[in-house]
Amino acid sequence: GKGIAVFTSGGDSQGMNAAVRAVVRMGIYLGCKVYFIREGYQGMVDGGEHIIEANWSSVSSIIHKGGTIIGSARCQDFRERQGRLKAAKNLVDKGITNLVVIGGDGSLTGADLFRQEWSSLLEELVKNKEITPEQKEKYRILQIAGLVGSIDNDFCGTDMTIGTDSALHRIIEAIDAIVSTAYSHQRTFIMEVMGRHCGYLALVAALTGEADFVFIPEWPADSNWKDVLCKKLMQERTAGQRLNIIIVAEGAIDRNGEPITAEMIKKVVVDNLHQDTRITVLGHVQRGGRPSAFDRILGSRMGAEAVMALMEADEKTEPCVISLDGNQAVRVPLMQCVKQTKAVAQAMADKQWEKAVQLRGKS
Ligand code: F6P
């Protein structure tokens, strides 16, 4: 059977374990040898006990766990050719020619580069007498399937990334909790949520948590945002509401591209409305805890589909990302997704917010 390795890379997210489990079990079911690579690309570079064969029971009782049981890392060594050379040697030693990478766009781009370089890496290894010419021939093709694991939902090509739904559950639980104490004291709360340069978590949290105001990167605050905010908060209080909730994405900005922070918002509310105001930064709580049913299913479906894609791949097959399109698991060319995701980042950097939103939607 084929040798498949699965690893998680970059920031963790809930549902990654479900994906790992599905890869292992689908792989074994189809007669493959499946390996874990621990600690992401770092484990691939370091080899040894970081690359170990998985069996059916090594993924028992993990579907309900948050994080990733095989560890994740942001790896510097893999960015250097020397590191990738070591990684290639470690994979060939184990007969691994198929990779399932679970991570964000950086991790998926790294995998694609690795694949493009693969034959030249093997050549160098033969030259250094680290592998034999027979090994080079036998393992000459590296296949890659990517799964997008991130709470941010910032990847083009898929409707939902693995972890986003669970993070939202965590966020709205926190908003609900804050609402009760805010009500008692007639307070205003500003809650900062994650998402990097993407406002998805903040926007959906605001809608589902009945927030009064939201700041997101894709809809930068106008120069009169302070007046608009105060008017809205006053309106709600006049209508009888005892509290206000403001959600601010960690990447929120104004029209000049300058950050809008929770502290800035608090100052506006306190100075103008004299409301008793508190800030809650949710932080990594959002990335932790048990995955939702949605993320367990999403991870499971994506993992199984990744193995199928690898099994069906031939020499000409381009690497793919397993995406959710409506309710379907589909295969999308990896580089197309990465390219589009980068185009969104560029549009944001160029302050072309509408274009960014359009590009993100058109996946
Ligand atoms: O990409 C996931 C994410 O949680 C972002 O929302 C956040 O900006 C970042 O990672 C935090 O990174 P770190 O875990 O390295 O602090």
From TrEMBL:
Residues 4-309 form the Phosphofructokinase domain. Substrate binds at residues 150-152, 187, 194-196, 250, 278, 284-287. This is ATP-dependent 6-phosphofructokinase. ATP binds at residues 11, 74-75, 104-107. Keywords: Allosteric enzyme, ATP-binding, Cytoplasm, Glycolysis, Kinase, Magnesium, Metal-binding, Nucleotide-binding, Transferase. The active site is at 152 (proton acceptor). The chain holds residues 20 to 382 of 792 of the full protein. GO terms for molecular function: 6-phosphofructokinase activity; AMP binding; ATP binding; fructose-6-phosphate binding; identical protein binding; metal ion binding; monosaccharide binding. Its main location: cytoplasm. Mg(2+) binds at residue 105. Residues 1-363 are annotated as: N-terminal catalytic PFK domain 1. The keyword Transport does not apply. Belongs to the phosphofructokinase type A (PFKA) family. ATP-dependent PFK group I subfamily. Eukaryotic two domain clade 'E' sub-subfamily. Homotetramer. GO terms for biological process: canonical glycolysis; fructose 1,6-bisphosphate metabolic process; fructose 6-phosphate metabolic process. It is found in: Cytoplasm. It comes from Monochamus alternatus (Japanese pine sawyer beetle). Catalyzes the phosphorylation of D-fructose 6-phosphate to fructose 1,6-bisphosphate by ATP, the first committing step of glycolysis. One of its GO terms (cellular component) is 6-phosphofructokinase complex.
